[in-house]
């Protein structure tokens, strides 16, 4: 889960870059004819079953990204309606109760979700293209054509093979046979992520040995060795070849949207993720880049992926990891289980020994924590990651702790209630009411299962840990604490506590 969130932060930054270039397109021309078809559960199958190729957006009326997409999508629909053959764009309000079955059928998990449906809806594929009108048009034109385009001339090669992207070419003496079929099957399978072409003349291609006659697969890439060949035509081996060769040794994260797909791949990998952040405009950036690359080459295939990020583009990541700019240059490694390792104020020569020490298990895990508050005199005690052990686990007290987020409405509603509970226990030294800002502090995910805010836990003085599942009322919380607290250590307190609470209750009545 932690890893998902970090992707969001990176992508958030990327979305801003991507959208800034095309925000100004049409709001005026919306009125007249709508090119996007509106479908619902009554007519979805009828329409879709008649189409070889149709694009369906599942949206919700309240979703901001959907609203932003709508004019672009409509514009693309209008352009594509005169494509030969016409390409149909449709939408389904997946928020409508009656359409929810459709949404489930197409595994809609977020909004907007766009699907490309082929063969009368028999085959569904995720839309992974851009969200601006021109981008949508270009992407869908490609998707509606053959999965692999034939390259017959140098011009074909130049127009198809984009220097900024992965492109995969099969070279074949003839366009038939098992190798060609396996290549085509792979192109069909991976067409939403990669572009494919085939040719019988390797001399047309921009790089690589031009005398080969094939069968051979050549993958062009905008980084590292720039192209790589393979001759293994087993479908699985081909796929593995494509996936592995299309990952850079070091993924670059900056404001260039061309790097976006590689950043996404980086985060989708199950590997531990090493991220070096520095200011790319600074003159010291070069020695860092070359040293980092050496380390990445050295640890290739050892379960670590490497990314280098420009400070300017990495605000989201900094916030997420609780990092500050004065720690730059820094390297942070995040394992798939969420554990993090940090080396701030790094020098180029530190990289290799530090990564090796990490590999050898010699680097202690890093946790994000707010500073320990200097005074903590409010009724509800402030806990930060660095005081969680002391206050919750080592204090020998009964502790109710709330994990909250500053922006969360339910947390705001709960705050005065917790305050009252804390006040009513003020004279009971064996009970602590506490709160922790879970957006600013790491919490051990093997101990606390925090999926939403607020999440409350109760730890009794004798060490039992329970997730609070009672009412979020003063009475409910107090009842729960009384039921679950460790009675043996605080018998003598009961009277004063009862008194406090009955006084409090009478106050309420006034
Ligand atoms: C499908 O049905 C809905 C609801 O009746 C209607 O609004 C929509 O226009 C129909 N779509 C098509 C393409 O007929
Ligand atoms: C094509 O792929 C299939 C399935 O992986 C495999 O059995 C077959 O050997 C492949 N053909 C060639 C020529 O590699
Ligand atoms: C990066 O370095 C350049 C040149 O030294 C400087 O102008 C810029 O403000 C720095 N960026 C950040 C985010 O510190």
Quick gist of this model?
The chain has helices at 2-20, 44-49, 64-80, 100-105, 133-144, 154-160, 178-190, 235-245, 260-268, 285-298, 315-321, 351-359, 388-393, 409-424, 474-484, 494-509, and strands spanning 37-39, 53-59, 88-93, 113-118, 123-126, 148-150, 167-171, 195-199, 216-220, 227-230, 250-253, 272-278, 304-310, 330-334, 340-343, 381-382, 398-404, 431-437, 455-459, 465-467. By secondary structure, it is of the alpha/beta class.
Figure out the total of helices: 16
CATH architecture of the largest domain: 3-Layer(aba) Sandwich
Unique ligands: 2-acetamido-2-deoxy-beta-D-glucopyranose
Fourth-tier CATH superfamily name of the largest domain: Glutaredoxin
Structural class, from secondary structure content? alpha/beta
Largest sheet: 5 strands, mixed
Query: What is the mean predicted local confidence, pLDDT?
Result: 87
Low-confidence stretches: 1-9, 11-31, 490-510
Q: What is the share of helical residues?
A: 25-40%
Strand order of the largest sheet: 1-3-2-4-5
**What percentage of the residues does DSSP assign to strands (E)?**
15-25%
**Domain tally:** 4
Q: State Rg.
A: 29 Å
How many β-strand runs?
20
Output the CATH topology of the largest domain.
Answer: Glutaredoxin
Termini gap: 47 Å
Which CATH class of the largest domain?
Alpha Beta
Domain Thioredoxin: 16-145, 341-486
Protein name: Protein disulfide-isomerase
InterPro entries: PDI_thioredoxin-like_dom, Prot_disulphide_isomerase, Thioredoxin-like_sf, Thioredoxin_CS, Thioredoxin_domain
Signal peptide: 1-18
């Amino acid at each position: 889960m932690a890893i998902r969130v970090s992707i969001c932060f990176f992508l958030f930054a990327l979305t801003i870059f991507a959208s800034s270039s095309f925000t100004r397109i049409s709001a005026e021309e919306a009125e007249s004819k709508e090119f996007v078809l509106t479908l619902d559960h009554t007519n979805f199958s009828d329409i879709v079953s008649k189409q070889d190729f149709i694009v369906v957006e599942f949206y919700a009326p309240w979703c901001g990204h959907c609203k932003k997409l709508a004019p672009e999508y409509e514009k693309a629909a209008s352009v594509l309606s005169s494509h030969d053959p016409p390409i149909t764009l449709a939408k389904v309000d997946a928020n409508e109760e009656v359409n929810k079955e459709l949404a489930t059928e197409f595994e809609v998990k977020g909004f907007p979700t766009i699907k490309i449906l082929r063969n009368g809806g028999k085959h569904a594929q995720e839309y992974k293209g851009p969200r601006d009108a021109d981008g949508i048009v270009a992407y869908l034109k490609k998707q509606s054509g053959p999965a692999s385009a034939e390259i017959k001339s140098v011009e074909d090669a130049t127009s198809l093979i984009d220097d900024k992207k992965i492109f995969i070419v099969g070279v074949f003496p003839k366009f038939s046979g098992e190798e060609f079929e396996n290549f085509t099957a792979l192109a069909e399978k991976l067409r939403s992520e990669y572009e494919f072409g085939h040719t019988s003349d390797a001399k047309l291609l921009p790089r690589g040995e031009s005398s080969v006659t094939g069968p051979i697969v050549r993958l062009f890439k905008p980084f590292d060795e720039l192209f790589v060949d393979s001759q293994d035509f087993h479908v699985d081996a081909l796929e593995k070849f494509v996936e592995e060769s299309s990952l850079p040794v070091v993924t670059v994260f900056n404001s260039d949207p061309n790097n976006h797909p590689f950043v996404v791949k980086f985060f989708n990998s199950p590997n531990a993720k090493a991220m070096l952040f520095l200011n790319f405009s600074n003159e010291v950036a070069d020695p860092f880049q070359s040293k980092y690359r050496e380390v990445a080459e050295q640890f290739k295939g050892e379960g670590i992926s490497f990314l280098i990020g420009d400070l300017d583009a990495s605000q989201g990541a900094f916030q997420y990891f609780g990092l500050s700019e004065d720690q730059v240059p820094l390297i942070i490694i995040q394992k798939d289980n969420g554990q993090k390792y940090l080396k701030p104020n790094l020098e180029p020569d530190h990289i290799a020994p530090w990564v090796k020490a990490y590999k050898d298990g010699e680097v202690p895990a890093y946790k994000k924590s707010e500073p320990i508050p200097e005074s903590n005199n409010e009724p509800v005690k402030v806990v930060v990651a660095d005081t969680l052990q002391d206050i919750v686990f080592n204090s020998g007290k009964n502790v109710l702790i709330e994990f909250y987020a500053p922006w969360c409405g339910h947390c705001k509603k709960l705050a005065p209630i917790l305050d009252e509970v804390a006040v009513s226990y003020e004279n009971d030294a064996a009970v602590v009411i506490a709160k922790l800002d879970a957006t600013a502090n790491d919490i051990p995910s093997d101990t606390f299962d925090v999926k939403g805010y607020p999440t409350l836990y109760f730890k009794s003085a004798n060490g039992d840990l329970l997730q609070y599942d009672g009412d979020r009322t003063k009475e409910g919380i107090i009842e729960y604490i009384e039921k679950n607290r460790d009675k043996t250590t605080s018998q003598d307190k009961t009277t004063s506590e009862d008194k406090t609470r009955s006084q409090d209750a009478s106050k309420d009545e006034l």
